[in-house]
Specification:
Blueprint (H helix, E strand, L loop, with lengths): L7 E4 L1 H4 L5 H13 L2 H4 L3 E3 L26 H10 L3 E7 L15 H11 L3 E5 L8 H14 L5 E4 L18 E3 L8 H10 L12 E3 L21 H13 L4 E3 L8 H7 L2 H7 L8 E5 L2 E7 L5 E7 L5 E6 L11 E7 L5 E5 L2 E6 L4 E10 L1
Parallel strand pairs: 1-2, 1-8, 2-3, 3-4, 4-5, 5-6, 6-7
Antiparallel strand pairs: 9-10, 10-11, 11-16, 12-15, 13-14, 13-16
């Protein structure tokens, strides 16, 4: 089964938009391996929009841009595969892609065949210039085409959360689906998208995952979705921690050639990735409000994850009363907490925790039940 766990990888859009070429993609493949991202589980390298010529060929087939990709797309795919990575590409359910390149409307089976021949392992399928009243049909057509193409291709349906996508997208063959508007490198955007999905994560499960959008971790205001200085490192911790607690796909969007040690440490945090990649992918129980949120997540190994998220522009102490998830003081059971960011054993807590969380930041803990 494809997508037993939330897919992980890198996508070109957030930083590079149309400024993509053969060398960039190959350099990025090198960087994914050199930084240990492949070893951490980031296996997909995905080229987003703007990779093709503006017109199909005389047979109606897609053609890679001759200047950006002079050796053709299979050459690039073969290089990515030689690094142990999987290769992803982009199309759209409309007559044009979002950037104005040929879309797959009416060409779904031809395009799926092209992707298979190139050696594609992942298709991001966008939602521009299509028939809005036939959204489900459009995504089902590509689902059928991918299954008929003769190659296993992970199907990433990017319809921005429209048309109640969470209620039907699993039925059209998708393995992950965008559930939100586009993210930007701002804390307002991160918090808005995170809070918008609290009641929708129950639709996400192994085989088809709710994609809250690509990661902005490490952008620092660069690229086409950056504004000013971008987010703080605290905001990136909030962002990455929530996406991990939500079992969202993790698609890095920054320039990996200039990845800082601080951001690499966050993106490869073993405890957070363990939470994200938990085989049961259960949604959290949410408590509190959007500004002082607590998330409690059942894990498959008998432990739990606790996330505390401070959405205020001031430092807070956030309370988690264990009764909120059903643990009574009379049960003689407590939680031993390990800090996900530092690895520190914080000791045993009975009945509740009440801990400081900096503004725009998060804290996450592994919680092991202890009988007293």
């Amino acid at each position: 089964m494809l997508a037993k766990r939330p897919p992980m990888g890198w996508n070109s859009w957030n930083t590079f938009t149309d400024k993509i070429d053969e060398k960039l993609i190959m350099d990025t493949a090198d960087a994914m391996v050199a930084h240990g991202l492949l070893d951490a589980g980031y296996e997909y390298l995905v080229i987003d929009d703007c990779w093709s010529e503006k017109e199909r060929d005389e047979n109606g087939m897609l053609v890679a841009d001759h200047e950006k990709f002079p050796h053709g797309m299979k050459y690039v795919a073969d290089y990515v595969h030689s690094k142990g990575l999987k290769f992803g590409m982009y199309s759209c359910c409309g007559v044009l892609t979002c950037a104005g390149y040929p879309g797959s409307f009416g060409h779904e089976f031809d395009d799926a065949k092209y992707f298979a021949e190139v050696g594609v392992d992942f298709l991001k399928y966008d939602n521009c210039y299509g028939a809005s009243m036939e959204n489900k049909l459009a995504y089902s057509r590509m689902g059928l085409a991918l299954r008929a193409c003769g190659r296993d291709i992970l199907y990433s349906a990017c319809n921005w959360g429209t048309n109640n996508v969470h209620s039907w997208v699993r039925s059209v063959g998708a393995h992950m689906y965008r559930s939100t508007e586009d993210i930007t490198d701002t804390f307002h955007s991160i918090k808005k998208l995170a809070c918008s999905q609290k009641d929708k994560l129950v639709y996400s499960a192994p085989g088809c995952f709710n994609d809250i959008d690509m990661l902005v971790t490490g952008l620092k205001g660069q690229g086409n979705i950056g504004f000013g200085q971008g987010c703080t490192d605290a905001n990136y911790r909030y962002h990455f921690a929530y996406w991990c607690m939500a079992s969202s796909p993790l698609m890095i969007g920054c320039d990996l050639r200039t990845l800082t040690e601080e951001n690499k440490k966050l993106l490869t945090n073993p405890i957070l990735l363990r939470i994200n990649q938990d085989e049961e992918a259960r949604p959290p129980i949410f408590m509190g409000n959007d500004d002082s949120m607590v998330a409690f997540k059942y894990l498959s190994d008998g432990e739990y994850a606790i996330g505390m998220f401070n959405g205020w522009e001031k430092d807070l102490h956030i309370m988690f009363n264990f009764y909120e998830v059903g643990l009574m003081p009379s049960d003689n059971c407590a939680f031993q907490l390990t800090d996900a960011f530092t690895g520190e054993d914080l000791g045993i807590f009975r009945d509740f925790v009440h801990l400081p969380v900096a503004q725009g930041d998060a804290r996450v803990f592994l919680a092991k039940p202890v009988l007293l």
